[in-house]
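Sequence in, structure out.
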Amino acid sequence: MKTLTGAIAAVLLATVVGASTGPIAAQSVPASVADQAFVYSVLQEARGQIAFARFAEPRAQSVAVQRLASTTLDEWSALAGRLEAVAQANAEPTPEALTPAQQRIFAELRQTHTEDFDAAYVRVAETDFERVLEAFQGAAGSADPQIAATVQAVRPNFERLDRQTNEDPTLPGTF
């Protein structure tokens, strides 16, 4: 999982403290800072992968990469929906836009030559599959039942997609 900057950690901590003293406190139990960090960072990854997959699906040259983009879009969207529900239930902040790093990746994908696009997209997808699986590992012991259920439900799909981006001979750059 990505390391949170001091500013994000402070916002998350302020949210936990604020939620325990405000009107929301009667409606929900604040999540731990670790759970909030998990939800926020994975939602941020999802925002990027959803944008990248939407962009890649019509531009991919091979059917295998088009299918990967479509499946990636479906899986990250489902995960984002589940985590949005967790965030809403706990009155947690959620990312609204791509990070500067995600914006740079998106710009690089837009500038990639047609013949190189499929391999570039597969590398981008593969990187975030690996990141989310690391995040799942850290969240597996979450005390929040919604987070634990989400990880248990979606982890097999992301493990399969990670294997696919590493091993499927029909995808460029796999072995």
